[in-house]
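ok so I'm stuck.
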Amino acid sequence: MSVRRKEFIDSANQMIAEASASEIILRNACSRAYYSVYHAAEHRAGVLALPAAQKVEGGAHEQLFERYRSIKKSGSKLASLMVRYKRTRARCDYKLES
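replied:
not stuck anymore, here's the structure
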């Protein structure tokens, strides 16, 4: 069984569209939306043949952000947005009092 990248955003949109979207549903939608962006960016980095990140502290997400930073201005803007989205996703997943 496999999942397509688009299914993450479809799932997020479906959650948000629910008339009685509770806080947990909205938090889950935020998480799914972030992963939709992450997987799309990861795929696009491969298509663009962006170079692998060199000596980046952190995991796969930080390495992907660094790959985009390597293409300077437009890539840096995208990387900055993705960092913000990741922080928002982390708040939704981990900061239960927020």
